[in-house]
Specification:
Blueprint (H helix, E strand, L loop, with lengths): L8 H4 L19 E14 L9 E16 L6 E15 L15 H5 L1 H7 L3 E6 L2 E7 L13 E7 L2 E9 L3 E12 L4 E2 L8 E14 L2 E15 L6 E17 L9 H8 L4 E3 L16 H8 L11 H14 L4 H10 L5 H11 L2 H10 L8 H12 L6 H11 L6 H20 L6 H16 L3 H14 L5 H10 L2 H11 L9 H12 L7 H12 L5 H10 L5 H16 L5 H8 L7 H4 L6 E9 L3 E11 L5 E12 L2 E13 L19 E8 L2 E2 L3 E5 L1 H10 L5 E18 L5 E21 L4 E21 L3 E22 L6 E8 L2 E13 L4 E12 L2 E2 L27
């Protein structure tokens, strides 16, 4: 049914106030017919304000207003009848000409005869002392709002319960509605992180023209604008205008006699019913639409494994999520059970990302966590949960329930707990810390960490806490950081590294200083350097900086070089601690050649990937070697900043230990008894993933050296719903609008560590491959016409880091390469108008550009080993991960 109905009622009530500030009712005269003209128009554009570039429509009509009844006991109790006539619909863009979807069609054909008749049926308005008591019409006609003069009020109107301010002038009254204050039930959600979020702004101004204390014309304009924070070309604008003008008055029908308004209404038409003042939700019916299974058949070809590097795969993924959100559990379960194993992981990504009760029930019914035959699908489900844009308590409760059950794979058990930590953090960010499931999960994480007896369980709970970042977990982290064995101590310190500066108190830094300076026990280099980095990044004191600088020269060789590189990076990149470091360096005992000339190959470097006035993207790479030249730790980070908000886009850490025996080298202090180990850990979009082990133990190392294929190990692979914003808007004209932005990517992060005894060379390799697509859309819908604007962007990109070390001599020869391939960037704009009868207008634009590949400096000194060539290196045909 048409929701235009009594749109102009949004204005006619303005007659209830005189400019003198006292309420007198509508001030309509007996036995008079008031003839007015009304029009409302809505158009969509990209915020440029040019109607010729917009899509939309205008609805206009003549309006007759008469006073049907007045209470004989009080003039301010009235019943008014309002009738729309000569309704017309046309394009708001007058340049459309022959392409107009309304060309050659009269209103009954556009709106449909039965809807037009209902729209033109009279509506009754019951006013008492200028206040709307009730709106009466034939069911399905709706919408109205109040008017009160002088000052700011909280009033219920079509937009909901809103703050409204009235400003009276000599010949006009201006009404400003604070649309962001309106409380109205509407479905919607957004991504909590501002970097991936959407900024929206709304304004509403109505001007009433006054003549001889009566309103003779009303003009209103309402705008809703949105833009993506990190990609501001994804933007749109909705403008809604309304106009009501009094044309003439003439003789009208006489008043209906009677003392009770109910009897008068019944005498006019017994079918009249009270209509709601606040705008109501409605869903457009889709007749003859494809089923979910049919949608999936057209989607699945794009989600074949060989197609995942293309942006079209991500577009199909995003589109299918929208269909899943309206599907029932049985439909979803049916396509899950029927799908082949090649495409099933991508389908699991989509079903989990839909984030509805039906999709969650379906995927939980489908996956059997007691079996180890579907580990890949279970892992894809869990990672999709971790990246959920707007998780709810139901999802966390489901993971807690699964964790308490049995598992076919211990890796999946660990991943469930790690991802539960990520959900706790996201729910707390959305003021859900007191939810029962969140409270239970906190107790599970902290209690488990406190009581853990096995090393594997301790590591699992620490990784979960690394995601949850619970302030109450800091004392436990300090305990494990200072007293735990190597890997546990290192994980505890890297968890502390993720906490916000306000949690790194003086008490925390006391413990970190003891760790770095080894006041109580000997620690591994990885633990000590992490502790020093936390201190330097969190408002270090003068003495803290001084003691760290004084230690340089007394450390193991490569740790000396690493700490020196960290300090130089702070100064070069103008980090917050740079001012304090410069103060300390004024002391000659600190700033001298002996201290700042230490040789070695370890390094730390931070730089910009991209820098703009409102945003920045940075990378940092730090590499720490053992004294024998074998990689100890490689840490590559990428951060995105928008204003004061930041997003840890990715971190890939490759660690190795206990490999000195292979080359008959002497281990560094505190690392004499370490088992042979190499592995990789990753953070992706602020979510810590389960680490991957290349080998663990000497026998495992030897077996893999003999059977090495040279293939990289995948850390994470899949489709991720990264940006998810949906907003329903109730326009004060009565029309309904939608604002949606979805962004997703197909990602594959893999890494390898190769080791050659023959050439006395080690190589680490980290590959990032992504395809990204973002789609923003705004639509305005009525039952007979729909207008929409879609703006989208897509790209495919790759980033590869390779570090090669020859340790046949000292200092080692090091070659580091980081390459960002040339990136195609495509933007699309689609504008359309469509009648319910099928006739439509579509305009499409496309813009494509190529962003050149970039070379990134990775070291503060020139390497003698190689001149870095920033181009993809061919895959090695032999060798392994060692």
């Amino acid at each position: 049914m048409i929701l235009l109905a009594v749109l102009f009622l949004c204005f006619i009530s303005s007659y209830s106030a005189s400019v003198k500030g006292h309420t007198t009712g509508l001030s309509l005269n007996n036995d008079r017919l008031y003839k007015l003209t009304y029009s409302t128009e809505v158009f969509l554009d990209r915020g440029k304000g040019k109607q010729e570039d917009s899509v939309g429509y205008r609805i206009s009509s003549n309006v007759d207003v008469i006073l049907l009844w007045r209470n004989p006991d009080g003039d301010d109790d009235q019943l008014i009848q309002i009738t729309m006539k000569d309704v017309n619909v046309e394009n708001v863009n007058e340049q459309r000409g022959e392409k107009s979807i309304f060309k050659g069609k009269n209103p009954p054909k556009i709106i449909r005869k039965e809807n037009l008749e209902a729209l033109q049926r009279p509506v009754l308005l019951h006013l008492v002392h200028g206040k709307v008591k009730v709106i009466l019409g034939i069911p399905h006609l709706s919408y109205f709002k109040f008017f009160f003069p002088n000052g700011t009020f909280s009033r219920i109107n079509i937009s909901g319960d809103c703050k409204v301010t009235y400003q009276a002038h000599q010949d006009k009254v201006t009404k400003i509605k604070a649309l962001d204050s309106c409380k109205i039930e509407r479905s919607g959600f957004t991504t909590s992180n501002q970097v991936l979020g959407v900024t929206s702004k709304a304004t509403s101004v109505t001007t009433y023209k006054i003549e001889d204390s009566f309103v003779i014309a009303v003009f209103a304009e309402e705008t809703h604008a949105f833009r993506m924070n990190f990609l501001q070309t994804i933007a749109g604008n909705i403008v809604s205008k309304q106009k009501l003008e009094l044309k003439t008055t003439e003789a009208g029908p006489r008043l209906i006699p009677g003392k009770q308004v109910a009897a008068v209404i019944k005498a006019v038409d017994s079918e009249y019913r009270a209509l709601p003042i606040v705008g109501q939700n409605f869903q457009s019916e889709c007749k003859g639409c494809p089923s979910l299974a049919e949608h999936w058949q057209s989607t699945r070809k794009h989600l074949q494994p060989d197609n995942l590097s293309k942006a079209e795969a991500v577009r199909s993924f995003l589109a299918f999520i929208q269909h899943l959100r309206t599907a029932r559990r049985e439909e979803i379960l049916q396509i899950l059970k029927a799908e082949s194993k090649e495409v099933l992981p991508q389908l699991v990504d989509a079903v989990t990302s839909a984030q509805t009760s039906d999709s969650l029930d379906a995927i939980l019914d489908f996956l059997d966590f007691k079996s180890d035959s579907s580990v890949i699908l279970q892992e894809r489900f869990l990672y999709a949960c971790g990246f959920a844009s707007h998780p709810d308590e139901e999802l966390l409760r489901a993971l807690i329930s699964k964790f308490k059950g049995s598992f076919g794979s211990n890796d999946i058990r660990e991943t469930v707990m790690i991802i539960a930590g990520a959900l706790v953090r996201k729910l707390c960010q959305n003021e859900g810390c007191k939810l029962k499931a969140v409270v239970e999960a906190k107790k599970l994480i902290l209690g488990g960490l406190e009581r853990a007896e096995k090393k594997e369980d301790t590591m699992m709970y620490l990784l979960s806490l690394k995601n949850a970042l619970l302030p109450e977990g800091i004392p436990l982290l300090l305990k494990y950081a200072e007293a735990g064995e190597g890997p546990i101590s290192h994980l505890a310190t890297t968890t502390l590294q993720r906490y916000d500066v306000r949690f790194i108190t003086d008490e925390v830094k006391k413990t970190l200083n003891r760790i770095y300076h080894q006041n109580r026990k000997v620690h591994e280099k990885t633990v000590r350097t992490t502790a020093a980095t936390i201190i330097l990044n969190n408002n270090p004191s003068y003495m803290e900086v001084k003691n760290i600088l004084l230690s340089i020269g007394e450390l193991p060789k490569e740790m000396n070089k690493y700490m020196l590189a960290v300090v130089q990076d702070i100064l070069r990149f103008e980090m917050p601690a740079s001012k304090m470091v410069r103060r300390v360096l004024k002391e000659m005992v600190i700033h001298n050649y002996d201290r700042f000339s230490k040789s070695g190959s370890s390094s730390a470097y931070t730089g910009y990937i991209e820098r703009a006035p409102h945003s920045a993207s940075t990378y940092s790479l730090d590499i720490l070697y053992s004294g024998s030249g074998i990689l100890r730790r490689s840490n590559l980070n990428i951060f995105q900043y928008i204003g004061k908000a930041n997003l840890h886009s990715s971190q890939v850490v490759i660690e190795a230990q206990g490999l000195e025996a292979l080359i008959a080298a002497t281990p560094d202090e505190g690392e004499e008894n370490l088992d042979s180990y190499a592995g990789m850990s990753a953070i992706l979009f602020d979510v810590q993933l389960r680490p991957v082990t290349f080998f663990n133990g000497y026998s495992d190392l030897m077996s893999k050296m003999l059977s090495a294929s040279g293939d990289p190990v995948s850390v994470v692979k899949g489709l991720i719903l990264l940006i998810d914003h949906s907003q329903e808007l109730q326009l004060q004209s009565g029309l309904k609008a939608n604002m949606d932005v979805q962004g997703g990517l197909a990602i594959d992060i893999s890494g390898a560590m190769e080791f050659s005894l023959w050439y006395r060379e080690s190589k680490t390799r980290v590959k990032n491959r992504v395809a990204l697509a973002i789609v923003g859309s705004i639509t305005v819908d009525s039952s007979f016409v729909k207008a929409g604007l879609e703006i989208s962007a897509e790209t495919e990109a790759g980033l590869e880091f390779i570090s090669t070390v020859q340790f046949s001599q000292y200092p080692f020869l090091v070659c580091m390469q980081m390459d960002k391939d040339g990136v195609p960037f495509r933007q699309f704009e689609t504008k359309y108008e469509r009648l319910s009868t099928g006739r439509g207008y579509v305009s499409r634009r496309r813009k494509e550009s190529l962003v050149a590949g970039s070379e990134f400096p990775l070291h503060q000194e020139n390497s003698d080993m190689c001149k870095v060539v920033f181009a993809p290196e061919p895959e090695s045909s032999s060798g392994g991960w060692f």
